[in-house]
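INFO batch 0412 | record 1 of 1 | parsing
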Amino acid sequence: MLKYRKLMDIFPWLIVVLWMLLIFNFSAQPAQNSDKLSLGVTEKVVETVEKVTPETEFNLESLNHIVRKNAHFFIYLALAIWVQIALRINRVIGIKRPLIVFGICVLFAISDEFHQLFVAGRGAQVKDVFIDSAGAIVGIVIYGIVNRFSLKKRKKKSVKPLMR
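INFO prediction complete | emitting tokens
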């Protein structure tokens, strides 16, 4: 039973590390490869929207920029949620948990931008750190809301009415 508990304490951190490796891998792509990937995603978005509203016209370059910045936001939103889960399972509670989560996400965002200085055609952008940080904040808030809602639901279930 003790080994199982230790495994359950470590498992969410493995997910966090894998997510960070995914982010690192995206950042390690030369600019040309990264642009190709995001353009592919942007084209799929355009195809889908055109099916719903065929008369809509798009500026592919502007839309691609939006897709790229949204990727920053959502990938750090997910990172913040994974780090929150890992800290909760490891019994880090109170106000220090979201502060630690935010610190981890911001430091990783800064290190990721620094890493891009060494990738062909890429560079570090402070605005990307701000976008990543905003995603982390939203992830922290979403986690807090969901956690509070599920806690209230569990409390309701555990309170049983008196039978007469």
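INFO post-check: The two ends are 41 Å apart (CA to CA).
INFO record closed
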